[in-house]
Write a structure and sequence with these properties.
alpha/beta; 7-stranded parallel β-sheet; 6-stranded parallel β-sheet; 16 helices; 16% strand; globular
Length: 383
């Protein structure tokens, strides 16, 4: 069986939310079929021979279009910026080339930006939306003002129409959680998983911290993460005496860097996030705008850490009561203080969280439904 895998960002290295999902799906498919990868590549991509060995062909196109040009093209064409930003003749040419040379059985498109490259007719098409981007931009619009609010509302409206049209013509539409799938009728959930061998507290060396340590992990130029840590540092941290807050993740924006101080560490990119998770007395996920299943929460649970999360960050995760949920600053502070004042209870909660992740979120179990969906056999080396 031959599958074309289209991705808006090359799934290498698997060190951020979308790349973790796309990498594990690609790995699952490549063990069962010949996979051809066409993807955009960012400057931070690190592609090894081991990565290339997963696929039969690998076409990586640098994404170089400036955002202002994408916005201008969107306004002229009446399309969403999310699509024009990823419209590229090189990618379209690569897709057309492989369609002309190979008898593909299926196309797996990862993220809605890549739906524009699906042929009108041809192989079975699977659209992995991951999250419903139109809902994300609608939420952005609620917090924006002036021309930016108009732009966000336009993006949400046009994307919603595009998402519906794509879902109507593909074989299956997938989302990261049942709550996201419910937003687009006829879709189904393909949940994220976690590598519980990699994320194991027994194999991680914790960093040192002289004070109780609160940790947030994530890509720190991603707006929901920026908003989350900014709010937490300004609204929750002052309510917590004698603690330290570590913001762990690459590409912190100037707004995030400005939070650094006596009580806040902004690490930037780290070699291994597990050391910070292992050292955390509490992992926090105070995202106000959260779509789908948050890998950061699964990773913290797998590392047996007590987690305090927003309703949105916990939504879609079958945590069986093993994480604490808070909705405002005082509630966050109370949950965190209760855990810090009861170390045995916090340890027991983290251990229960790890057991739940092992039981519920192994990647093989989560991706098994792809085999039936695509008509794949058991895992075997790709020919």
């Amino acid at each position: 069986m031959e599958i074309l895998f289209l991705a808006h960002r090359a799934p290498f290295p698997p060190d951020r939310g979308d790349r973790i999902r796309s990498f594990n799906i690609l790995k699952h498919l490549s063990a069962r079929a010949r996979v051809h990868l066409i993807a955009f590549v960012d400057d931070d991509a690190v592609i090894t021979d081991e990565h290339r060995a997963l696929v039969d062909e690998c076409v990586l196109v640098p994404r170089t279009k400036p955002q202002l040009r994408a916005a201008a093209e969107a306004l002229v064409s009446g399309q969403p910026v999310s699509l024009t930003a990823f419209a590229d003749r090189r990618v379209r040419g690569a897709v057309n080339d492989i369609l002309s040379r190979r008898r593909l059985d299926a196309i797996y498109a990862f993220s809605s930006q890549m739906a524009q490259y699906l042929p009108a007719t041809g192989p079975k098409a699977i659209m992995d939306f991951v999250d419903l981007d139109s809902a994300k931009f609608a939420a952005y619009a609620d917090d924006a003002f002036g021309p930016m609010r108009w732009m966000m509302r336009r993006e949400a409206r046009l994307l919603a129409a595009f998402e519906r049209s794509v879902a109507a013509r593909v074989h299956e539409s997938l989302f990261v959680s049942a709550s996201e799938a419910a937003l687009l009728p006829g879709s189904r959930a393909l949940e994220n998983g976690i590598d519980t061998v990699l994320y194991d507290p027994a194999v991680a060396a914790p960093v040192s911290s002289p004070r109780p340590l609160l940790v947030f992990t994530g890509q720190m130029d991603y707006r929901p993460n920026v908003d989350a840590v900014t709010w937490f540092a300004r609204s929750v941290l002052p309510l917590l005496p004698a603690v330290h807050f570590a913001i762990v993740g690459r590409a912190p924006t100037p707004a995030v860097q400005a939070l650094a101080g006596a009580d806040v560490t902004v690490t930037g990119e780290v070699t291994d996030v597990r050391g910070w998770l292992a050292a955390a007395d509490v992992v926090v996920a105070p995202l106000q705008l959260a779509r789908g299943v948050q890998n950061k929460v699964l990773e913290a649970m797998a590392m047996a850490r007590p987690v305090v999360a927003s309703t949105g960050a916990a939504e879609g995760i079958d945590h069986a009561g093993t994480i604490r949920i808070a909705s405002d600053a005082r509630e966050y502070a109370n949950c965190i203080m209760a855990l810090l004042q009861d170390p045995p209870g916090a340890t027991a909660l983290g251990d229960a969280a790890r057991r739940q992740v092992i039981k519920r979120y192994g990647w093989e179990a989560r991706l098994a439904s792809l085999d039936d969906l695509l008509g794949l056999g058991a895992a075997s080396p790709a020919a």
